[in-house]
UniProtKB/TrEMBL annotation:
It is an enzyme of class 1 (oxidoreductase). The keyword Oxidoreductase applies. Pathway: Amino-acid biosynthesis; L-leucine biosynthesis; L-leucine from 3-methyl-2-oxobutanoate: step 3/4. PROSITE patterns: IDH_IMDH. This is 3-isopropylmalate dehydrogenase. The gene is leuB. NAD(+) binds at residues 73-86, 278-290. Binds 1 Mg(2+) or Mn(2+) ion per subunit. HAMAP family: LeuB_type1 (MF_01033). Catalyzes the oxidation of 3-carboxy-2-hydroxy-4-methylpentanoate (3-isopropylmalate) to 3-carboxy-4-methyl-2-oxopentanoate. The product decarboxylates to 4-methyl-2 oxopentanoate. It is found in: Cytoplasm. Residues 2-349 form the Isopropylmalate dehydrogenase-like domain. SMART domains: Iso_dh (SM01329). Keywords: Amino-acid biosynthesis, Branched-chain amino acid biosynthesis, Cytoplasm, Leucine biosynthesis, Magnesium, Manganese, Metal-binding, NAD, Oxidoreductase.
Amino acid sequence: MKICVLPGDGIGPEIVSQAMRVLEVLKQDGLKMEFEYGLLGGGAVDETGTPYPEATQRLAKEADAILLGAVGGPKWDTLPREQRPERGLLGIRKQLGVFANLRPAILYPELANASTLKPEVVSGLDIIIIRELVGDIYFGEPRGIEERGGERVGYNTMVYSESEIRRIAKVAFETARRRNRKVCSVDKMNVLESTQLWRDVVTEVHKDYQDVELSHMLVDNAAMQLVRNPKQFDVMVTGNMFGDILSDEASMLTGSIGMLPSASLDENNKGLFEPCHGSAPDIAGKNMANPLATILSAAMMLRYSFGQEEQALRIENAVKKVLAQGYRTGDIYEPGTNKVSTTEMGDAVLAALQ
Ligand code: NAI
Ligand code: MG
């Protein structure tokens, strides 16, 4: 298993180094992994003049998976758009063709008070949103703003092909098989033809997954149900735009952004794994950041890119254990718990792994 490690900027190097300590333990225990480090983002701009240098592109292409910290920061905010660190991130996602964005939203019982929703609504929450990442109205043509009949008109095109829907539907059903075998597909078929096709194709793909229960929901209702009764869901699958909105809504059911991992996968389960948060310049270099989202992203990497379910669970159970033991970085701290630094949280996870 060849893994390309891209720590990035801000808190990126601090949190990635804790995830690497975890992976090194699994390596010592016999898991065959090779790591290669590369530059991405602002650090890459400083050293090479570009946010996604060719050397990194080569590493990313050769690797079986990529573990990423975060990129960006105020230092690079005044650069022209093409040189900004965020361009590096879009570049690598696009180049790898990672069309399936998986975002689990799990509320750990010990963090029940971190959510803004009532504990009885969110306690025990464990859902995953699968968002199609490279199609839909974000990429559809034609698009633009033009003059028509003496006023400006803006337009975009919502478009999905059968093959695009088919491949994301498969990811959803496969994911559900590893969980509670329930998929809810979200669309707006009562108004939008492209999502009528979405519903038809998802229903067709379901024929190969009769052991998984499929339901359909209109997106406005789905937005409502996510805050009314989120525990009714297991896997939700939807297009790029609806998924953008619903995955942000779902992530906040759990409280802290410092806890949320993500995976973006291509057709062969090669993937890019990164925490949902950014480079947190306000706390960078202070040994304060929560490394758990990145550690959990490494667990997703083992599960989805390498089929190492047991090793993934080993990491996730270690994270649950440190939370149960009361270890908290600043973002999830509550009076009565044990406030720790980034490296101390890493120490605690390593101890829990043993
Ligand atoms: P951010 O996610 O970096 O920070 C938002 C807030 O959450 C800050 O108060 C930060 O301290 C806190 N936070 C984030 N991660 C944390 C962690 N692991 N532990 C504890 N607290 C944490 O978002 P913001 O401030 O909007 O963006 C900062 C920079 O990051 C910008 O340059 C932005 O472009 C970039 N960014 C990069 C992303 C990526 O690499 N995928 C995603 C989002 C933003
Ligand atoms: Mg968004």
